[in-house]
Amino acid sequence: MPKEDLIEMEGTVTDVMPDQRFRVELDNGMSVHAYASGKMRRYRIRVVAGDKVKLEMSPYDLTKGRISYRHKH
């Protein structure tokens, strides 16, 4: 699957789980599980509950996603 086929959505982090995993509520009301991308881990970008984030999701599984960007307040 090429990277161009990813679906980008925005949401709010509602729950922080172990091992850089998060529960994110999307703007359309759905709740998905997400993990921090490799660059976010590399540069130690912290994500806490209440942050607005941008997700990348595969069109094949809309229950999981990767957090690619944390919006600044």
UniProtKB/TrEMBL annotation:
InterPro entries referenced in this protein's UniProt entry, alphabetically: NA-bd_OB-fold, RNA-binding_domain_S1_IF1, S1_domain, TIF_IF1
S1-like domain mapped to chain residues: 1-72
Keywords: Cytoplasm, Initiation factor, Protein biosynthesis, RNA-binding, rRNA-binding
Subcellular location: Cytoplasm
Top-level taxonomic group: Bacteria
GO molecular function: ribosome binding; rRNA binding; translation initiation factor activity
Assembly with partners or alone: Component of the 30S ribosomal translation pre-initiation complex which assembles on the 30S ribosome in the order IF-2 and IF-3, IF-1 and N-formylmethionyl-tRNA(fMet); mRNA recruitment can occur at any time during PIC assembly.
Family the entry assigns: Belongs to the IF-1 family.
Protein name: Translation initiation factor IF-1
